[in-house]
């Protein structure tokens, strides 16, 4: 199966490099994405919004499904979860499964994160002190240094633009939520309690949960394990 990997804020396609071996070894065709505006530190991020990121994924979905005649799997980490959910909404008949890595689907009018400090068109990677302790679990000084060295400012509008959705068939696309910072049981408690944070997730008809206890960036802290969890989720749809 074709698997599209969408990174979260400040990251490009290379952030998946330690995750892909498990997927490729299982025979899958892996397509890590660099979203518009994340090509380099010097890239022009002016005017790039959330919809541009969604459309980048949709364009690749269309190409791959037309070439193979088969549905694809979408994987979104962190803010990439909002992006893949927008793509599921745009192409519900072309996606076999949406996999949310320490993230979830973003509903209509929701924004990814409009509280991050911006500098013009850019949202730079903030100091580590701005993150919660749970975000940084297993994130060693070496990993932090590697992340900061490769980090690219995120387009400001992609962080603050409202999500736009239109096709309720998105709720028929199976989803997997990989819970890292807190256990999946907590997510399910929130759903049972009607918490607005998980309102969109609660409307998806077929959701499975997988726990991978670590911080917010499992592609760095537990990449092999993350690859295996993604592989297991995708293989259910083969």
Automatic annotation (TrEMBL):
<feature type="domain" description="AB hydrolase-1">
    <location>
        <begin position="3"/>
        <end position="226"/>
    </location>
</feature>
<dbReference type="Pfam" id="PF12697">
    <property type="entry name" value="Abhydrolase_6"/>
</dbReference>
<dbReference type="GO" id="GO:0016787">
    <property type="term" value="F:hydrolase activity"/>
</dbReference>
<keyword id="KW-0378">Hydrolase</keyword>
<dbReference type="InterPro" id="IPR029058">
    <property type="entry name" value="AB_hydrolase_fold"/>
</dbReference>
<dbReference type="InterPro" id="IPR052897">
    <property type="entry name" value="Sec-Metab_Biosynth_Hydrolase"/>
</dbReference>
<protein>
    <submittedName>
        <fullName>Alpha/beta hydrolase</fullName>
    </submittedName>
</protein>
<dbReference type="InterPro" id="IPR000073">
    <property type="entry name" value="AB_hydrolase_1"/>
</dbReference>
